[in-house]
Amino acid sequence: MIDRCPHHHEEPEERLSAPSSPSPGTPGEGRVRALPQQPTSSISPTKLLPLPYRVPAQRDGKGGGEGVAQNFWRSFEELTQSPDFEKHLHREFPPDASIWKDGVTRRRFLALMGASVALAGLSGCYRRPQEKIVPYVIQPEQLVPGIALQYATAMPLAGYGKGVIVDQQMGRAIKVEGNPRHPSTLGGTDVYMQSAPLALCDPDRSQVPTNRGNVATWSGFDNEFRATVERFGGAAKVRLRLLTEPVTSPTLYAQIQKLRKTYPNLQWHQWTPLSNDSARNGLQAALGRDASVIYDFSKATRILSLDSNFLQDDPGSQRYAMQFIRNRTVRWKPETMAAHHEQARVNEPYTVVNPLPSPTEMNRLYVVESAFTISGAKADHRLAVKPSEVQAIGRAIAAEVAGTATALAGDLQQHAAFIRAVAADLREHWGKSIVIAGDGQPASLHQLAHTINATLGNVGQTVLYTEPVEPEPVVCLDSLRDLVHAIHNKQVDLLLIVGGNPVFDAPADLDFAAAVETVPWRAHLSPYLDETSFHCQWHLPESHWLEMWGDIRGHDGTVSIIQPLIQPLYSTRSALELLATIAGDGATSAHDLVKNHWANVWKNDVDRRWEAVLRAGVIEGTAAKTINLPAGQTAASTQPATSPAASPIEISFHSDPTIFDGRFANIGWLQECPKPITKLTWDNAALMSSATAISLGLADRDHPELANGKMVELKVGERTLRMPAWVHPGYADGVIVAHCGYGHTRLGRVANGAGFNVYSLRTTSAMHSAPVTVQKVEGTYPLACTQNHQLMHGRDIVKTSTIANLHEHNAAHEEEPIALEGEATEHGRRVKLSIYPEYDYRGYRWGMVIDQTACIGCNACVVACQSENNIAVVGKEEVMLSREMHWLRIDTYFSDAGRLEDEPAQRAAGAEVMFQPMLCQHCEKAPCELVCPVEATSHSFEGINEMTYNRCVGTRYCSNNCPYKVRRFNFFNYSSPEPSLAIMRNPEVTVRTRGVMEKCTYCIQRIDAERTGRKIEQVRAEERGEATTMRTISADMRGKLEELPATTHLTACQQACPTEAIIFGDMNDASSFVHRLKTAAEYQRIHYGVLTELNTQPRTSYLERLTNPNPALKIGAAPASPSARAGGAA
Amino acid sequence: MSQIFHPAMNVVARASIFGFVIILIFVGWVGATLDRSPYFTNQGIVKDQPVPFSHEHHVGGLGIDCRYCHTSVENSRFAGMPPTKTCMTCHSQIWTNAAMLEPVRESWRTSQPLQWQRVHNLPDYCYFNHAIHVNKGVGCNTCHGPVNNMPLMYQYASLQMRWCLDCHREPEQFIRPREQVFNMNYVAPTNQLELGRTLVEKYHVKKEQLLNCSVCHR
User: Fold this and answer.
1) Taking CB atoms and an 8 Å limit, are A948 and B214 in contact across chains?
2) A663-689 burial string, b = 16+ CB within 10 Å, else e?
3) Are A845 and A943 in contact (CB under 8 A)?
4) What CA–CA distance (Å, rounded) separates A1043 from A1045?
């Protein structure tokens, strides 16, 4: 570290100047980057492992002699060095995690030990239960027991589809992957897609129709429906209302059209709580017609997001994320790894197009936002403001861009530098920028964004307008309001709610629950017997999308066929089947309905096209048509700004990053998945800045973290909600951010009672933000946050630098020696100095590189790992004891925005966020291996640190000795014995029991399948005298490495990643991308290993996080606003 | 103070010390023997099956190839159990009235599968792969024994880990030419070791890797 840290000599001074910093050597040093250590011997660890040259982490505009270093920290506890935190730091698990505390005498202890030793021997002596083999009567074609089949289908989410490929083992859906052919995902996934196997097998899913709370049958429902229609005057007269989620499915829409013919008085409403109403209205205002907009981030070099979380919340987010990142980091051809994966089968190696982008090529993202989203985390410049301030900033930027700027209003003066720099930067990139507004902002801002895009010539380049994707687009809020009015006016006889949970998530002032009770006859189709079902006479269980036929459009209108992986597990129907039944098509299967619909479209060659479409997962040529706008149309008159009312404190409502709008609240994987940035699990909280918390009297200035978990009462209009506070870096002062979807009362065992129902504060006049009064109330609430778990004691772990710095320091250091993991080099010479055993890797040699520039912190890999590796959910109480079982976690680090002597609130105000996926590093010299008394963890001949569960006796020595804190221990039998969950488990991975250590295996089951398959192919090919595709061996290694077949498989996390931040492969294969990244000189400037000073020689290495800040803007200029200081002084 | 223990206690003490050691050894021996016995390993035990299927008749007598029924043995970790349809390819024509075959016909009529008692049962944490073994020259009867002479199927080997390791340590002792894998009457040549070494080389068997834990456990 010494040679890599140009400002290291400043650090002792800065420590002296910092009043609160402890003397070196106290435990407190873990708080900041470790002090430069004096080499204790002539061979210092850093000399042993001369890591590639490091660019100064210090950023432009932050240097100087002020003693400001780039400090990284993970939480307020760490920042303020709270004494509890110091205690916590020295234990991997909190004290409660020890099973025996006090009160066990020595005698009792010995007695217990004696008994357990005796019983331990006996536990191996049991007769295995007799098993049965049940073969098919007629085995389905193509099905080979033990080999997974893949089916292309699509996941519907709030009306839009995302293409997936699902692995099926003997009829069980095991794992969901992205479909590279689908335009909305490009092969990427998100947490919702990954959690589908659990959603399908959720034991709380409703299994039979219920009639007024009693178990009923579908035929009973059909009969009663017909009878009720007759009672209200027959099909021609009955006033039937249909409430669905937004519909894009062509077949479903056709059914609704048919229904309208059968029931002439039918009215159709669409509702989803986190709709894009304002985007639709803004677009309508800008273009004068209904349209949809899609963005092409692959052509955009400057992006301005006005409160938009386009990396997560858009139906096309995975595509946008991929395109955005491809313009930001190492680029190669084919454009995506998924495409490479397909091409690799015909042996087309990677071509690196651009090892590192130049500062002009690399895109730059400006984010103005009210919450702290992952888009904000990836921003080069982020401005945290109140929701009501976004509009004014947007207008000021628009005026600057158009050249009509006048003097900035008083409030905007503090952002003047930002506004001018952004506008100038956008103007310089005419036709190559994007301005995108968020769904939480009013329509007028959306219209403004379209106007700016038109002014900048982006329309037709990066911003494309298409015909609306939905066949009948509506403004959801108006649609629901109409329905409630109609109910109040007694105009509704029958109400059929298909999907959604409006009683739970409708605006509170509509009082949907009371309204729906007054409808004479009502039924609700949903996967759970939820709040809405409770208020309807009939609850109808809905099929999961993995068990139904259907079709759906993606973000750009491309249609995918939804095909089932399994027969419905329970007595359920899909929306299509339900509507077909009441439209009189009940005898036709859903498969036939969908196929007939497309047969009518295609006219000829139907069977062949149907087969092809099912294989591909998308119907080519069904994307919405682009609208060619006459020039200048979008620059039409702008409607007056309608900002949300400004107020000292504003609340901003957002979709939850793990349970979405609440529909996934019963999925344990998603509840336990730490939310990006906050790392909260199992709950939501009122997120606020530390200055806000201090001004509310929740905490004092030295320890803002004391506010965490304290209850506050939020009052919006007349409605109040009590929920716990949570202080968080990077939030604007005077903003409370609340995630919707929590606080269910009747969804399932996992969802009920978790979190607080923020929908109860939302009203039709304040759907996205509102003025709020906050009051401290008595009481605290325990929140399970994983941010301080598995800390690495403040060592030099994350690295970041600017692309400009990187290129500046490029030339001088090109002849740095290159070290592959496993080889320490000194002056270009191989040296091996370790007491650990040496291995000679002549075969495969697996390795991984994680690109921190590309990681957007979306958690898809975390849930993918959980799904692939049968990782258990432990529950909130266990998470609070640091016992979560995730093999892969996303560590979040904050960079200091202030100086050491500043108050915590100031240092946190403009903090930047860095994501670092952390998993077993598969060290070459693994500290865990040597301490295992039973050799349950060992080193394989391909370099993998293996974990053998059946050998493990649970001493936990390995975990104690692991510097990366990536090993997980089964304190209890976490894997639920629930029978329905058994069918979702991956049969290729052991389900662990109590007392066993576990950790990342690099997906050894996938490696094994690949290796086995390739070797069988090889032997067969040789027998036939044919050639197999062999891996490439570089000239210097020829003769030293074995000739082996080339491999192309991906790990689960790698396959799930929407931005391809994780790269895995055979390091001995010279054509593999992982080999290139680890050896080629052009990457050594940003390639590093974590904690390599311990000489663990990790096999997983990292690429530094690169940013491209605007030289015209000083870092940290935006935050630390006057209000922060005012708040701090209050 | 008088002597607490009578001198005769010396004998008792010695006897009990040695006796305790002997008892320990005996208990250990009993445990180890039990653990290796068919009581736990199921080696050589015939199980009641719904149909008394005779491999001796079908394989030894009629000469049906293993792969006729165990179709996926060359491609999957699971060798595959024949669906009822496979039985009915012949038995819809011959022995159509045999009482013994009634469960098969019933399965065919009612579409309810036959439920066989599993004979070779590995613990769930062991991942054995048939495909790689038969493709690299491990014969069926190396592990399953003389199936062609088994009127009723039983487990030939102990299936304990030490038995697996015998071959994983020295595959050259057991490996045979690929074309002989399904030959039930194959007899290892006298120069097996020599031939085995050539085949290990030819089939790219990585001996050192065969001892990695993750080859079988994951």
Assistant:
1) yes
2) bbbbbbbbbbbbbbbbbbbbbbbbbbb
3) yes
4) 7
DSSP string, chain B: ---SS-TTHHHHHHHHHHHHHHHHHHHHHHHHHHHHSHHHH-BT-B---SS---HIIIIIIT---HHHHSTTTTTSSS-----HHHHHHHHTTSSTT-GGGHHHHHHHHHTPPP-EEPSS---TT----HHHHHHTT--HHHHH--GGG-SS-BB-S---HHHHHHHHH-GGGT---GGGTT-TT----TTHHHHHHHHHHHTT--TGGGG-GGGT--
ipTM: 0.90
State the CB neighbour count (10 A cutoff) for residue A518: 12
DSSP annotation of A239 reads -
Per-residue pLDDT averaged across A110-126, rounded? Answer: 55
> Between residues A10 and A314, which one has the greater pLDDT?
A314
Would you tell me the crossing angle of helices A476-488 and A277-287 to the nearest 10 degrees? Answer: 110
Contact B84 A1001 (CB under 8 A): no
The amino acid at residue A1004 is I
Q: Which residues pair with A573 in a beta bridge?
A: A542
| Gap between the Cα atoms of A217 and A221, Å rounded | 6
Tell me, yes or no, if A678 comes closer than 8 A to chain B by beta carbon: no
Of the ranges A246-250, A610-614, A902-906, which one carries the lowest mean pLDDT score? A902-906
State the Cα angle at A640 between A637 and A643, rounded to 5°.
Answer: 140
Cross-chain CB nearest to B113 (options A121, A134, A944):
A134
CA distances from B6 to A443, A549, B13 (A): 104, 90, 11
- pLDDT, one tens digit per residue, over A990-1040 is 999 888 999 999 999 999 999 999 999 999 999 999 888 888 888 888 888
Predicted pLDDT at A506: 93
pLDDT in tens, A624-638: 998 877 655 554 445
Judged by DSSP in three states, A561 sits in strand
Buried b (16+ CB within 10 A) or exposed e, A900-928: bebbbbbbbbbbbbbbbbbbbbbbbbbbb
**Closest Cβ opposite residue A130 in set B39, B85, B117:** B117
| Long-range CB contacts for residues A285-288, cutoff 8 Å, separation at least 24 | A285/A443, A285/A444, A285/A446, A285/A447, A285/A639, A286/A446, A286/A447, A286/A450, A286/A451, A286/A634, A286/A636, A287/A450, A287/A465, A287/A627, A287/A629, A287/A633, A287/A634, A288/A633, A288/A636
Tell me the pTM: 0.86
If you write DSSP's letter for every residue of A781-841 in order, what string do you get? ---EE-TTTT--TT-S---EEEHHHHHHTTGGGTT-----TT-EEETTEEE---SSPP---
Q: What's residue A88's pLDDT?
A: 59
Smallest Cα distance from A947 to chain B, Å: 7
CA distance A881 to A786: 10
Rounded CA separation A294/A662 (Å)? 26
Roughly what angle, to the nearest 10 degrees, separates helices B102-110 and B84-91? Answer: 120
CB A990 within 8 A of CB B125: yes
Contacts of B108 in chain A (CB under 8 A): 137
What residues in B contact A138, CB-CB < 8 Å?
Answer: 83-85
Amino acid at A825: T
Tell me, what's the pLDDT at A630?
60
> Based on the number of CB atoms within 10 Å of its own CB, is A476 exposed (0-12), middle (13-18) or buried (19 or more)?
buried
Q: What confidence category does residue A412 fall into, taking pLDDT thresholds of 50, 70 and 90?
A: confident
Query: Does residue A965 contact residue A92 with C-beta atoms inside 8 Å?
Result: yes
Q: Which residue of B has its CA nearest to A844?
A: B209
Q: Dihedrals φ, ψ of A534, to 5°?
A: -60, -30
Q: Is residue A964 over pLDDT 50?
A: yes
